[in-house]
Write a structure and sequence with these properties.
It is a single chain. The chain has 206 residues and is an alpha/beta fold. It has 3 domains: 13-76, Orthogonal Bundle (Arc Repressor Mutant, subunit A); 85-123, no CATH class; 127-196. The protein is built from 7 helices and 6 strands, in the order αααββααβαββαβ. The protein has helices spanning 13-27, 39-46, 50-63, 85-103, 107-123, 136-147, 179-184, and strands at 66-69, 73-76, 127-132, 154-159, 171-174, 194-196. The chain has a 4-stranded parallel sheet with strand order 4-3-5-6, with helices on one face. A two-stranded antiparallel sheet has the order 1-2. Helix 7 links the parallel strand 5 (171-174) and strand 6. The longest helix has 19 residues, at 85-103. The termini are far apart.
């Protein structure tokens, strides 16, 4: 069982241990019902405090990854939790770690930066852009074309006149054929930041 802990990392050692054990189980490197070292053995092997290892084992038991028994020892659960998305996370993190190492970048500082960017993305999901067309299908198609040209700072929302509320959006892209209908619709006023698209969209937006 290969476990590598960074004692200089900002991530607590117990959390590192939990994450790596969880990953080994999810990848199948630790087979179901496989016997793990005792708390004392693993603590000695990794040069960790006994209580740190014991707490990690207990946490993984609560999550359903491990089963502890005084006589049978600590084993991988027969049916550990299934999280298919972790396969993608594992691939991304492995690639990221390899790139950091090859470039000689500081891993801890890089992790802090990634965490900060993730928090910022969650707090600021992006400007909402309404894509207004005659039918839902046309609106969806135009929204997809928009996404190809814009960054993740924008959310493209396909809409028709029946579902459009101008105050909900920072910017609106409108089918020119809808302009007269839009301005004649009571209580619906396009925001100042409004663009018109042509058949050659996005060229033609003003």
């Amino acid at each position: 069982m290969d476990i590598f802990l960074d004692k200089h990392s900002v991530i607590p050692l117990g959390e590192q241990l939990q994450t790596q054990l969880r990953l080994l189980i999810e990848r199948g490197d630790l087979e179901r019902e496989a016997l793990l070292p005792t708390v004392k053995e693993l603590a000695a092997q990794l040069e960790l405090n006994y209580n740190t290892v014991a707490a990690a084992y207990r946490a993984l038991e609560r999550e359903g990854y491990l089963v502890q028994n005084r006589r049978a020892g600590t084993r991988v659960a027969a049916k550990p939790p299934s999280r298919p998305e972790q396969a993608m996370v594992s691939q991304l993190s492995q690639s990221f770690a390899q790139q950091l190492t090859s470039l000689g970048l500081d891993i801890n500082e890089s992790l802090k930066l990634v965490a900060a960017q993730a928090q910022q993305a969650q707090a600021s999901p992006g400007l909402k852009m309404a894509v207004l067309a005659k039918t839902p299908l046309e609106a969806q198609q135009l929204a997809e074309r928009l996404r190809a040209f814009l960054t993740d700072n924008f959310q493209c929302v396909p809409l028709t006149l029946d579902t459009y509320q101008s105050l909900d959006y920072h910017f609106t892209v409108i089918d020119p054929a809808l302009i007269q209908r839009l301005t004649a619709t009571p209580n619906v006023i396009p925001p100042l930041s409004t663009g018109l698209y042509s058949p050659d969209f996005p060229a033609g937006a003003d």
